[in-house]
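Researcher: Sequence recovery benchmark, item below. Answer with residues only.
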C-alpha cells in the first residue's frame, strides 16, 4: 500500500474549530485515569456505528471521512491547549501527564472505513479505530461530531434528490436558517454530496468547489417604488452593440402582453417593473426574477383549481371578486389563491425586451402561494407567449420554487402535477427538521486482543464484540442483498459459495446466501501517521452516493414503510457473541 500525501488541491483546509480540544471533558479525564493506571501501552479497537437509520428510512449515507482524516493528520495539542488544560483540570494532575499529551499524535492509529458516500446500515461500523487505548479514546467525540452530522445531512439531501427525481435541479438555500455558521457550512458541503446541484453559500462554494447559484430577494423588488427609480434605462445589444432602451421596450411589451395574458398593466406594479429592468441590466444573460412580491390574493373555487391542475384551463380570473365575504366563500368551497398577475406580466415584458437586445432570460422564482397551481399558471403563460410570438425558448423558461419545501411537499407537488424545474430548499434541509440527529456511537470492542461486549437490557444496544470485517453480498439480480459481519480471522465470503447469514440476536432468523458479487466494505485510510488511501474529491463522493443508492432495491428506498435492508453476522461471529454474552451476563438468583 503506497502512502499518499495530500496537499491543498486534493483536500480543502479543515475548519479551524476542528482540533483536539473540540471534545468532551471526560475524554481527557479518562485519558489521565488510563495513564495513571498504567494503561499507556494498552491497545484498543473501537467501532463507530449507528443503530437506527434516520428519517424513518432504511438507509444512511456515510459521510465525513475526509474530515476525520484531516483531523488525524493535524492532531496535536498546542502549548496553549496544554496551558488551558493545566488550569482547568484539578491541580492534583501530575505534570508528566501534560508532557505525555504534548507529544501525542495519531501515528500509531489505524483507521479503517467504509468508502465515503456509500449507503450504510445499522450496526455495520462506519469506522474502525485501532491503536493505543488513550489516543483512540481521545478521538471519540470529535470523530462522532464529524461523522454524525455529515452522514445525517448527506442522507437528508439524498432523500430530497430521490423524491425530487433526477430531472429537477436542487439548490441549497439554508445558511440563514442553519444551526450556526459551522452547521451552515457543513450543510452546504453535505447537501452537495447528497445530490444537490448547488448552494447559495458563497464560502462553501469557495472552500469546497461547489457551484454557487441564486436569484434575488424581495428586498430588491421593494427597494424600487416607481419607474423613476431606474437610474439608467439603456442596455447595449449583445451583438450589434447598439444602445437599447430597456424601459421603453419593456413598457411596450407589457401593453402588448396585457391583451394576450388577460392581465391589465394597471394591475402590475411599476416599482416591480423598475426592479426587474434594473436586475436585467445588471445580469442580462442570467435574468432570473422573483415574481411573487406583488402577488394578488383572490378567492377561487376549489373545483376549478383541481380541473386546472389536471391540465384543463378552467381557471377563472374573475372568481372571488364579487363581494362575498371570506367566511361565505370558505363554506362554499372557495380557497384563498394568489395569482402572479403583476410579477408574471412584468417578468415576461422584461424578458421579451431583453430578447430584443440579444439576450435570453433564464426564468422566475415563486416563493409563496400554491406552488403547483402557480407553476402551472406560469408555464401556461410561457407557452402561450412562445406560441404567439414564435419563440420556442420562452416555453422552456426555468421555474424555481421555494418556501419551506420539505420531502412531503415535493411528493405532494409531484402527485398534484406542477411545472417546477428547480427547488430552492433551506430550513427543512439544513436543520434536518424531520430528524435533527444521527445516533452514531463509538464503542470499545477489543482491548489487548481480548473482545469486549457491552450488555444491555435492550438487545438492540448490545455491541458486537471483536475485530471484525464487513462484506456486502449481492444477489442474482445485481442488487445489494445483505451486509455480513465476520470475525477478522475468518475467510472472506466468495462469489458462488453458499454463506450462512444469521441475525445477530435472533437464533431462528438465518438464511443461506450465494452471492453474485462480494464487496469488501473496509479499506485502511490511515496508518503509520499517513493517509494510505486518498479520499475522493467531493464530486466523486457525490457520484458515489448515487451509484451506491442504485444498488438498493426500490422497496428499501421508498418513502412509506420501506423494507429494512438485512444486516447479518456469520455463524462463527454469532457463536462468538453469544458465548461472550453468557460469560459476561451475571446469573441471577430467584428467591
Ligand atoms: N401545491 C402545494 N401542495 C402542497 N404544499 C404546498 C403547495 N404549494 C405550497 N405548498 C407549501 O405550503 C406552505 C405554504 O405556506 P404558507 O401557508 O406560509 O403560505 P405562504 O404562501 O408562504 O403565505 P404567506 O406569504 O401569507 O405566509 C409552504 O410550506 C409551501 O411549501
Ligand atoms: O423556506 P426555506 O426552505 O427556508 O428557503 C429559504 C427561504 O429563504 C428566503 O427568504 P426568507 O424566508 O428569508 O424570507 P421570506 O419571508 O421572504 O420568504 C427564500 O425566499 C426562501 O423562502
Ligand atoms: O438565491 C436565492 O434565491 C436565495 C438564497 C438564499 C435564500 N433564499 C433564496
Ligand atoms: Mg420564506
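Model:
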Amino acid at each position: 500500500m503506497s502512502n499518499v500525501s495530500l496537499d491543498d488541491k486534493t483536500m480543502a483546509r479543515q475548519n479551524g474549530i476542528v482540533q483536539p480540544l473540540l471534545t468532551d471533558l471526560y475524554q481527557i479525564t479518562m485519558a489521565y485515569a488510563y495513564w495513571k493506571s498504567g494503561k499507556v501501552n494498552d491497545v484498543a479497537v473501537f467501532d463507530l456505528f449507528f443503530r437506527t437509520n434516520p428519517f424513518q428510512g432504511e438507509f444512511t449515507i456515510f459521510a465525513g471521512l475526509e474530515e476525520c482524516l484531516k483531523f488525524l493528520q493535524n492532531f496535536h495539542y498546542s502549548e496553549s491547549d496544554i496551558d488551558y488544560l493545566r488550569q482547568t483540570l484539578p491541580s492534583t494532575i501530575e505534570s508528566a501527564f501534560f508532557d505525555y499529551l504534548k507529544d501525542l499524535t495519531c501515528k500509531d492509529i489505524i483507521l479503517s472505513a467504509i468508502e465515503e458516500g456509500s449507503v450504510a446500515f445499522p450496526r455495520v461500523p462506519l469506522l474502525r479505530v485501532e491503536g493505543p487505548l488513550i489516543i483512540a479514546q481521545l478521538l471519540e467525540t470529535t470523530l462522532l461530531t464529524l461523522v454524525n452530522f455529515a452522514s445525517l445531512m448527506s442522507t437528508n439531501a439524498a432523500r430530497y434528490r430521490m423524491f425530487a427525481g433526477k430531472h429537477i435541479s436542487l439548490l441549497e438555500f439554508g445558511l440563514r436558517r442553519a444551526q450556526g455558521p459551522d452547521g451552515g457550512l457543513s450543510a452546504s458541503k453535505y447537501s452537495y454530496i447528497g445530490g444537490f446541484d448547488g448552494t447559495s453559500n458563497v464560502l462553501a462554494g469557495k472552500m469546497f468547489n461547489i457551484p454557487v447559484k441564486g436569484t434575488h430577494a424581495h428586498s430588491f423588488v421593494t427597494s424600487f417604488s416607481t419607474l423613476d427609480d431606474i437610474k439608467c434605462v439603456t442596455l447595449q445589444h449583445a451583438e450589434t452593440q447598439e444602445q437599447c432602451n430597456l424601459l421603453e421596450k419593456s413598457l411596450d411589451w407589457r401593453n402588448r402582453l396585457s391583451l394576450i395574458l388577460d392581465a391589465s398593466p394597471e394591475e402590475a406594479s411599476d416599482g416591480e417593473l423598475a426592479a426587474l429592468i434594473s436586475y436585467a441590466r445588471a445580469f442580462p444573460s442570467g435574468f432570473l426574477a422573483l415574481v411573487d412580491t406583488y402577488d394578488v390574493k383572490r378567492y377561487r373555487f376549489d373545483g376549478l383549481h383541481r380541473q386546472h391542475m389536471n391540465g384543463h384551463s378552467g381557471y377563472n380570473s374573475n372568481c372571488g371578486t364579487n363581494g362575498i365575504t371570506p367566511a361565505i366563500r370558505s363554506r362554499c368551497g372557495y380557497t384563498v389563491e394568489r395569482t402572479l398577475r403583476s410579477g408574471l406580466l412584468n417578468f415576461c415584458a422584461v424578458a421579451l425586451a431583453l430578447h430584443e437586445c440579444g439576450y435570453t432570460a433564464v426564468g422566475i422564482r415563486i416563493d409563496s402561494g400554491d406552488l403547483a397551481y402557480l407553476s402551472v399558471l406560469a408555464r401556461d403563460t410561457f407557452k402561450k407567449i412562445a406560441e404567439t410570438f414564435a419563440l420556442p425558448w420562452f416555453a422552456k423558461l426555468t421555474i424555481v420554487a421555494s418556501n419551506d419545501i420539505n420531502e412531503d411537499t415535493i411528493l405532494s407537488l409531484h402527485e398534484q402535477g406542477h411545472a417546477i424545474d428547480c427547488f430552492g430548499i433551506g430550513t427543512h434541509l439544513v436543520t434536518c427538521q424531520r430528524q435533527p440527529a444521527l445516533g452514531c456511537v463509538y464503542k470499545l470492542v477489543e482491548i489487548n486482543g481480548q473482545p469486549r461486549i457491552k450488555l444491555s437490557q435492550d438487545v438492540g444496544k448490545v455491541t458486537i464484540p471483536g475485530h471484525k470485517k464487513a462484506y456486502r453480498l449481492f444477489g442474482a439480480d445485481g442488487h445489494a442483498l445483505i451486509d455480513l459481519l465476520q470475525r477478522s480471522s475468518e475467510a472472506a465470503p466468495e462469489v458462488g459459495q453458499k454463506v450462512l447469514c444469521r441475525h445477530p440476536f435472533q437464533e431462528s432468523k438465518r438464511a443461506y446466501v450465494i452471492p453474485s458479487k462480494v464487496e469488501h466494505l473496509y479499506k485502511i485510510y490511515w496508518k503509520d501517521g499517513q493517509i494510505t488511501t486518498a479520499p475522493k474529491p467531493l464530486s466523486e463522493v457525490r457520484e458515489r452516493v448515487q451509484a451506491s443508492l442504485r444498488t438498493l432495491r426500490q422497496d428499501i428506498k421508498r418513502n412509506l414503510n420501506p423494507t429494512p435492508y438485512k444486516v447479518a453476522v456469520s455463524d462463527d461471529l454469532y457463536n462468538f457473541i453469544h458465548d461472550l454474552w453468557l460469560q459476561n451476563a451475571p446469573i441471577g438468583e430467584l428467591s
